[in-house]
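User: Show me a protein chain along with its predicted structure.
Assistant: Here is one chain, sequence first, then structure tokens.
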Amino acid sequence: MDAPGKLIPVPTQETAPFWEGCKAGELRLQRCADCGRYQFPPQSFCRSCAGGRLAWSATSGCGKVLSYTIVYWSPNPAYAADAPYSLALIQLNEGPRMLTNVTGCPPRQLQIGMEVKVVFEQCGPAIMLPKFQPL
């Protein structure tokens, strides 16, 4: 029996603009035309005001580490070679939070409040995965 591989996101109609932005090297989020707030993950209405006038907008791709954990062991062998790695909650400058990895920094040097910027990593043939690294 083959070991499971790494999980590759599958774009949906709702998330396709996000993944297209990643492929273009931009972190795109939905922004409400009624209240001006950004949101992530995408959905069909604004979480803040319930408005339906959402548009995709490129963001700064910057934020701060709000929280993190260091993963030393994974039950999926496909991730074993990556350990130890960090799984971090990033507070984006535009407001939303994103759960992702921080790269370019040994996990033990990661700090809450550390300023980070998005980078994109190839994940499967058609997906660029947003990750972050220290500024």
